[in-house]
Amino acid sequence: MSGIERAFRDEYGRAVAVLVRLAGDVDLAEEAVQEAFAVAAERWPRDGTPPSPAGWIITTARNKLIDRNRREATRPGRHAEALLLHAPGEPAGEGAVPDDRLRLIFTCCHPALGEGARIALTLRLLAGLTTGEIARAFLVGEATVAQRIVRAKAKIRDARIPYRVPSDADLPGRLGSVLAVVYLIFNEGYLSGSGDPVRDDLCAEAIRLGRLLAELMPDEPEVLGLLALMLLIHSRRAARVTAGGSLVLLADQDRSLWDRDLIAEGQALVRRCLRRDRPGPYQIQAAINAVHSDAPTDWRQVVRLYDQHLALTPTPVVALHRAVAVAEVDGPAAALGLLDGLDLDGHHLFHAVQADLLRRLGRDEEAVHAYEAALTRTENPAEQEILRRRLAQVRGPGNAGSGARMGIGSVR
Questions:
Q1: Domains and CATH numbers, the chain
Q2: Is the pLDDT higher at 133 or at 234?
Q3: Terminal CA-CA length for the chain
Q4: Would the pTM of this model clear 0.85, i.e. be above it?
Q5: Residue 96: CB partners within 8 Å, gap ≥ 6?
Q6: SS3 at position 241
């Protein structure tokens, strides 16, 4: 990976957040950052990567905005004075949110924007995700995501939604969208669609934002639940990928490689949530991962937690994950019946779970078709490798009725 590509991955969100604070305009900020990276693409290969790529990008983008403001100073209705509000290094008003990136998340999650638009815009601006990567996270088409982002920017511009720190009273109303954004950033890092099995930069950024949220809102159990969930999942990162870059499923991971400090911190947060007795989806998911962190996994407890999760969040995806746990308790036939009627044809994991259950029941021909369907619905090379390996195994001789568990549904 080149220095420019790495800088884009690591610093795009930070640069946009800083420039939005300086410029007060989302479109201008993003355009300036993109122009700065275009300049970097010309200069860095010739002059070398600067010691501080982030500082170079932010300074160059800011200079682009200053030049633009000077050119357009006489145009009515423009934001000619925006950059002049803060001199270099001058802090903006901090308010309740002390971090540029976290502040931008709350700004993009303004209630005037639709839920899907809020999340799509923030993932674009903060994580630098492409429309394709966001579309995979939403399980929708790229055109839909692009339209949401365009409309969100237009709404911010036309309604003159200011870039400002929300008051303490406004924070809870925007919390649901903020938590969803942070978790989607984490998920894109943990199972990236970019070609890398894991993007530690996105995982680390999501956890950093989660810690900031926990400091900002220590009495919100769902904030603690999300932080616990990310810590518990991230504790397995050293065991998830082989030296050759292949994903290792949960059932096959070497637990001695798991980060016990992260597990202890995550489990302690789960216990704090339990004492609050205000259950929510992130807390329940964290509790499920806490159970997985102790060997052997108590699958009956996992099923009970998924029952609670499904009652709070009755979605097909939650039902799918519950079916994976049911298969460990009541067998593949019981779990396969639970998949009937789930509207998840576009979701590769649905077909992968179905294929695994069919294979365990000795229905190899149907399993082959399901694995093939899963392969066509994911672009992640690491996932594709696992699916091809499973497909080759089920096509091979002597597989019928083997009943061995492959665990394709457990990729974390």
A1: 315-412 (1.25.40)
A2: 234
A3: 25
A4: no
A5: 165, 166, 167, 168, 171, 216
A6: strand
